[in-house]
Amino acid sequence: MRPVSGGGAPHGVADRGAWFLVLPALLPILVLSVGPLLYGILLAFTDAQSGRTEPTRWIGALNFSDLLRDTLFWESFRIGLLWAVAVTALQFLLALGLALLLDQDLRLRWPARALAIVPWAMPEVVVGVMWRLVYNPDAGILNETLHDLGLGDGRDWLSGLATALPAVIVVGVWAGMPQTTVTLLAGLQNTPPELREAAAVDGAGAWRRFRAVTWPALRPVALAITALDFIWNFNSFALVYVLTNGGPGGRTRLPMLFAYEEAFRYGQFGYAAAMGCVMVAVVSVFLALFLVGRIRGGDGA
Amino acid sequence: MRTRPAVRAGQYTALLAYLAFLVFPSLWLLSVAFKPPRELGSLHPTWIPKNPTLANFRQAFDEQPLLHAAFNSLSAALSAAVIAVALATPMAYVMARRRTLLARAASGWVVVSQAFPFVLVIIPLFLVLKELRLIDSVPGLVMVYVVWSLPFALWMLVGYVRAVPVELEEAAAIDGAGRLRTLVSVTAPLLAPGIVATALFAFITAWNEFFFALVLLKTPEKQTLPVVLTHFIGAEGAADLGPLAAAAFLATLPSLVVFALIQRRITGGMLAGAVKS
After folding, report:
1. Is B193 an interface residue toward A (CB < 8 Å)?
2. Is residue A100 a contact partner of residue A188, using CB atoms and an 8 Å limit?
């Protein structure tokens, strides 16, 4: 393990050392991540199925033209977008509020921070299980609380056609809020407090201080975490699998659940891979938008 | 800068509302876990169990192979964490210290890998692991977990390496230490806390992971805790609430403890990795 230098080492020798350090991680990445990704894209153009004896054939873009006419998939896709946009937006707004509060000189700050990370550490399956207990129509605390407050007898939140998706979105927000909060809080604490104080001395109100001083400093962190949140939410699986398994009547069937069933319940590997490709395409558009936004925004910041 | 009392009061109210929202589901989980069946069947459930009991825990262990599952989870998560960090640390060092094309490509991959829908990766992985006869086995799952936790491990470790001043390494070199000697006795000790934090984070992610385990592990004796937890929920969605809550509570404890240990470092590492030098 020789020269990996902090700067100006002679290049030929140094690069050989660098390769030696990089290969142990690079090989598994290529074999088990980049490889399968490319393989997956190829599969989308075949009729691959689970447990079939005939050889798999190329069928061109047939999967995609089938997919185009698959109204169930597009319905699931629509629900997935709705879910991802709603969860990401609510997560961001609530997390920003909490981060601004935690940035203040408040007494409850320490226990608040400690408690706020609980949802982050919890396994997603446990989050799902826990909220099933909360939403449970008979033994759940939500209906009981509504009853005590005189707000009616409550309902079966997760099985109601109208309530299932909003109920699931609340859980998504709950689960993702801590990470967003902690990230935004760290971003806030990197902005120099003197700036805000100077603005306050100059007579700027809270809203103006936020607009003119805090937000410009926070924006790169905010954009990054929001883009990641959107991607994570769009690809989310375990929460909704445990909460509703896509029901009632497909009202919460996110694209990941749809593709999972297609692949591992019906064995349609090729078709499910095509769905995966469509999902990647959507996510890439958002990723690109985010990168473009960051480059443009970077000029001013 | 003084804050008006009315504003302060508003801030405290808002903070308490946040705390209530974040904490009440966990408290309810605890409450259900310690309630006897009679109270669970009651039409008007209470927050605090009237006759707290451990019966749900006993029943949970009787109904599902929880110990077995915990052992599977532990071995998968531990191996994945150790291997991932061992592979990622040298690469992160190169990525942080050199601006080669490779280092930049690797940083790009870290970002792009976040966008993969798992379903596009899992189908080919499923086929590959089937060829290798690693389907339905914990080692197969570990391989997937290692690769899956590498991007984040790299991301964090790059941040930690950048936090070690290059000047320290240069000073050691001027004092006559060789490259290896510098890495081992100057860089490694300074990196150690970051490496431990990264490994623990990889441990939690693997311990909590559900999707890959669901697809890859079919035999009940080989399944990990999150998958076994879902067996408490019947096909019709009906569940034995008490044991379910008890098992869910137990499955969360290790993650919570480990997470409490490293929370500060994780946030620091995430931001450090994000800052361009």
Report:
1. no
2. yes
Contact of B270 with B159, CB cutoff 8 Å: yes
Q: What is the pLDDT of residues B58-110, one digit of tens each?
A: 988 888 888 999 999 999 999 999 999 999 998 888 888 877 777 777 777 77
So where are chain A's domains?
67-300
Candidates 1.10.3720.10, 3.30.565.10, 2.60.40.10, 3.30.450.40; CATH matching A67-300: 1.10.3720.10
How many Å lie between the alpha carbon of B115 and the closest alpha carbon of chain A?
Answer: 6
Say what the ipTM of the complex is.
0.88
Chain B, nearest residue to A245 by Cα: B237
Architecture of domain B56-274: Orthogonal Bundle (1.10)
Phi-psi region of B133 (alpha: psi -120 to 50; beta: other; left: phi over 0): left
The pLDDT tens digits of the residues spanning A225-246 come to 888 889 889 989 999 999 998 8
pLDDT tens, residue by residue, B179-231? 778 888 888 888 888 899 899 989 999 999 999 999 999 898 899 999 999 98
Q: Residue B5 half-sphere exposure, CB side, CA atoms within 13 Å?
A: 0
Task: Please list every residue in chain A whose beta carbon sits closer than 8 Å to the beta carbon of residue B268.
Answer: 186
**Alpha carbon separation from A198 to A93, A105, A185, A192, A202 (Å, rounded):** 26, 18, 21, 10, 6
Q: How many CB pairs under 8 A join A and B?
A: 294
Q: Whole-prediction pTM value?
A: 0.87
